[in-house]
């Protein structure tokens, strides 16, 4: 059991009386980066195939590589069929040379049907909505195909449609179809079935596809729920591909995942143009890959040492694609509020990856071990989200050189993953997407931007309260962001914003959770609670309020 000491036990956390009396100026600050909060996408944890990409069929095109050959898995034969992978003399395309031959097996009974079935990505969600599908067939056949969604347990058919064959001998021909279940299946334990009554010989199939409704109804598009979740983060940039792409990982599972579909490409995958995000192309992780990227583009790299021995690469303003990473325990993040205060102002910094991944230990300065036996956080807890907020508020405070930050990894299919914890977790059931505690912290911070940092004076140093002030020049609207990492009593804040008068109004939004160990998990409720109150400046033009332990707060004037 984690004690309070292991939640957070830094030297400044003595619980002594602490009050933040702050005067904020509306001039003299630095310009803030408009890209402060973004997202990172990398091909890990089935983030793409089996993830944000809405394709329901697993291994739809039998793709492989020299290292990981094509496979029939998870396809299974239907009706005594025999399934064989083939590289036909007439491939579907140069990129899709391998197809599956479906032929009557030895025990096939004349007059029956044969085909193949697919379980999807650990299941298929079936609800009363339209599904669009297609497949390519090679061979001579003049009958009909049947496509259906059915229960894997009871064989109950949720939707079925007959497709008249358009097959031509020696040519690949596409067949399209639509399915529309009338009722919802009780769970995701469902399969897709494609079968037919064979004539003489066999048929080859490739690029067998099935899509539910997609984000913005885009053909070949993405899952609406996950895309809406990304949009709600109000991201300003998309870092893609992420560090795991082309990384020489020792994990066969990780590598195989990257040998699958790449239709989820840079240009269209996350609809960055439609969401207002700026795409940032990126050198993949791994020394060889990074060196190749460095050689391709003229730039200047500077090493910035962090308090726990990690290094952050800064970059030439003409290229914004170097991957500094920061994976730490909560106590380490809590010490990095001032990490960028004395950084070289000539070299912009992009925080390409950051996350709390291991719990605190009694040694408050202990860095992440990377030991396979060291316990990882399966899901992000609230104390980790608060500690990350200290780190990102420090980045906001230095937004004249910190271009932006992106949490990583972004996605995790709970049925097949290589890395934990992650920002968003999901399964085949869109109704059970899980948004982590860090997601809600980032969402709040990202929703409130400002054009310039606002200088301030205070009668207290930082810790246990950490904060940053900003102003939108032209409107004179202030934003004040703060968090309290650990204290035995609430922290009073008294803030005087220059240029505002008694009676001025503000909105205070506060996030918290039942405890520092609270986490969002599959089939659980959202532990992050949000409260919003209205404030009025009192005598002396001061806004007064209190924040308790592990509060994350944003105050905006209007």
Structure, described:
There is one protein chain. With 558 residues, this protein is mainly beta. Helix content is 12%, strand content 31%. The relative contact order is 0.16. The chain is elongated.
Mean pLDDT score:
86
Strand order of the largest sheet: 24-26-27-32-29-30
Classify the helix fraction into a percent range: 10-25%
The DSSP helix count reads 9
Radius of gyration: 27 Å
Explain briefly what this protein structure is.
This protein is mainly beta and 558 residues long.
Task: Provide the descriptors you would attach to this structure in a database record.
558 residues; mainly beta; 2 domains; five-stranded parallel β-sheet
Layout of strands and helices, then pairs:
Blueprint: H1 4-7, E1 20-24, E2 37-40, H2 48-52, E3 76-78, E4 81-87, E5 98-104, E6 114-118, E7 131-138, E8 144-151, E9 157-164, E10 172-179, E11 190-196, E12 203-211, H3 224-231, E13 237-239, H4 252-257, H5 272-275, E14 278-280, H6 287-296, E15 302-305, E16 311-314, E17 325-328, H7 330-333, E18 349-351, E19 353-356, H8 382-397, E20 402-407, E21 411-413, E22 424-426, E23 434-435, H9 437-447, E24 452-453, E25 456-458, E26 465-472, E27 477-484, E28 491-497, E29 505-512, E30 529-536, E31 542-547, E32 552-557
Helix pairs in contact: 8-9
